[in-house]
Amino acid sequence: MAEKRNKNSKYIIVIVVVALLFYFYLRNKNPEIIQSSPTVLKRGDNGELVKLAQQKINSVAGVLNIPTLVEDGIFGDKTEAAFIALLGSPSGTTFQVSNAVKSLV
Length: 105
What we know:
Blueprint: H1 2-27, E1 40-41, H2 48-58, H3 61-64, H4 77-87, E2 92-93, H5 94-104
Antiparallel strand pairs: 1-2
Helix pairs in contact: 2-5
């Protein structure tokens, strides 16, 4: 009986350790741009989607040879210039930004 209890305890410990590792893995992941968002971002926009796009663009700023953006969620002149460098267009969806960044990495 004690042997069975000891075996069950080992399984519980393994499950807890795996759950904790999974939790810390997800907690440390960078936020992803919402892929299905049809919102077209353009100059004058602001908010979380713009900020996430700025973060994605900054991850490849060196490859694009552009200055890093302030990740403030405000779509201004510099963000527009970065969109042009990345997408060839002054505006675009979060899906387009994400795909363009993935193609460079």
